[in-house]
Design a protein that fits this description.
The complex is a heterodimer of chains A (121) and B (109). Chain A has 121 residues and is mostly beta strands. Chain A has no helices and eleven strands. Classes of the chains: A mainly beta (121), B mainly beta (109). The interface between A and B is medium-sized, with 24 and 26 residues.
Chain lengths: 121, 109
């Protein structure tokens, strides 16, 4: 059974760097074809894809946020970490991590419960 | 503003068939697969359709997807009250990024 859980601060100040950790079980990020993605959702708004990382360390970023994002994996700890620099109130959102199936780069079949991050001074 | 365009709302009565459209371009829907997600209130999204028209295990066959050119559609037949949710289309774009539609809020009257 695949599960994922996001963790990190619930409140960050403007200009600070956000670090979120996705801890997963039920699969290994060293297995060919496996990936993990990050998606966020501002309150009452649509989903927005942020980044993804594959078993071979292939990484992709949202073009509009690329300069602010870094995604890494720690295979031994079954974790994926997303950092976002220069946080702004518009970055207030629920942040989800999700498992990517071999069915495609946008095939997020199992999601974490999400973690709400508020950006405020 | 999302690159994939969906109607903000849709509605139907129990038992009806409803469709939700998703319009894109040649760089996303036109050249890549389309995915659909269902998000019930207060929960994480759930993969409903992958690769245009495939259903993951456990998704009822009342849900179906189709794609034609740069547009796609999600159809829900035999509408039920528990189908009331937000629905999102998604696709990979040739700019090497994933994109989601703006979402459609489905109301079961």
């Amino acid at each position: 059974q695949i599960t994922l859980k996001e963790s990190g601060p619930t409140l960050v100040k403007p200009t600070q760097t956000l670090t979120l950790t996705c801890t997963f079980s039920g699969f290994s990020l060293s297995t060919s074809g496996v990936g993990v993605g990050w998606i966020r959702q501002p309150p009452g708004k649509a989903l927005e894809w942020l980044a993804l990382i594959y078993w071979n360390d292939d990484k992709r970023y949202s073009p509009s946020l690329k300069s602010r994002l870094t995604i890494t994996k720690d295979t031994s700890k079954n974790q994926v970490v997303l950092t976002m620099t220069n946080m702004d109130p518009v970055d207030t959102a629920t942040y989800y991590c999700a498992h990517i199936t071999p069915y495609g780069d946008v095939a997020f079949d199992i999601w974490g419960q999400g973690t709400m991050v508020t950006v405020s001074s | 503003q999302s690159v994939l365009t969906q109607p903000p709302s849709a509605s139907g009565t129990p038992g009806q068939r409803v469709t939700i459209s998703c319009s894109g371009s040649s760089s996303n829907i036109g050249s890549n697969y389309v995915y659909w997600y269902q998000q019930l209130p207060g929960t994480a999204p759930k993969l409903l359709i992958y690769r245009n028209n495939q259903r993951p295990s456990g998704v009822p066959d009342r849900f179906s997807g189709s794609k034609s050119g740069t547009s796609a559609s999600l159809a829900i037949s035999g509408l039920r009250s528990e189908d009331e949710a937000d629905y999102y289309c998604a696709a990979w774009d040739d700019s090497l990024s994933a994109i989601f539609g703006g979402g459609t809020k489905l109301t079961v009257l």
